[in-house]
Amino acid sequence: MQNSYAVSKGSRRSIPKKRKIPWYQVCLNLLFVIVVILIMLPLVLVLSVSFSDEKSIFVNGYAFIPEKLSLMAYSYMWQDRFSILHAYGVTIMATVIGSAIGLLMTAMYAYPISRRDFPLRNVFSFYVFITILFGGGLVPWYLVYTNLLNVKDSILALILPGLLMNGFNILVMRTFFQGIPSSLMESATIDGAGEFRVWWQIVMPLSLPVLATIGLFNTLAYWNDWFNSMIFISDAKWFSLQYVMQKTLMDIQFLSQQSGTGNASALLATTPTETMRMAMAIIGVGPIVLAYPFFQRYLVKGLTIGAVKG
């Protein structure tokens, strides 16, 4: 009996006490919660307005809870569903191909200039740095892609101009590569591996955080791009999703400016202008919002490691 009591008493003593959370950590967590709420509020407001009635928006303004639910904006967009779905396909194709090729080219450029035994590393690094500070101008940029590369009215017009490689992304990836221990690469070289095999089988698997970070940057750049469609595309079958949305907004703005005329006024009166703008924003941002959580942990790790190690 005494032994069992001693065992139970000892077991009670072995239970660790709960550690108190420091007050500054509690304040920091509360601050992050408030920041997340402030970031989410505009998205919630846009979603709420897209499901609101147009007349209630004009009378009472925006509200987080719709006073009167309405699917009029989405029904108007459903009438143009084929062009929107086609634009979705074009944007997804340009985003996937451009992000993959851009990520591969960025890694292939960043790896040599991260090696201290590469004699021209300073020259190529300076070239990348110059492209961040200076540009050739809009007219030479347009002439190179239209007259020299002839990418007009093709999928290449949505991939090549200005989005495939970025100097900032190259420098971030170079900094990450410099943090990989050189002993690993030296060991592989001694075992007979060439530079390409070292880069592909050793450096790249260890660089998943920075690859996911740069891949997310490329994906956002391609998905949100509408300027290349406006400049290089005149055939409607190659319009990107963002340009279709931008074109619709411009048409609505044109109708608003011509509201004095009879036909434009009648058409504008039956078109849910405000709610349709919000519905287009929801349709355009939806896939990126759903994909972002899968990149988040790699994004944070890649940015912190690439920024600290030099």
UniProtKB/TrEMBL annotation:
Topology of this chain in the membrane: Multi-pass membrane protein
Localisation per UniProt entry: Cell membrane
Lineage, broadest ranks: Bacteria, Bacillati, Bacillota, Bacilli, Bacillales
Domain of life: Bacteria
Keyword entries, A-Z: Cell membrane, Membrane, Transmembrane, Transmembrane helix, Transport
Membrane-spanning intervals of the chain: 21-45, 85-111, 123-143, 155-177, 198-223, 276-295
Chief place where the protein resides: membrane
ABC transmembrane type-1 domain span: 84-280
Name recorded for this polypeptide: Sugar ABC transporter permease
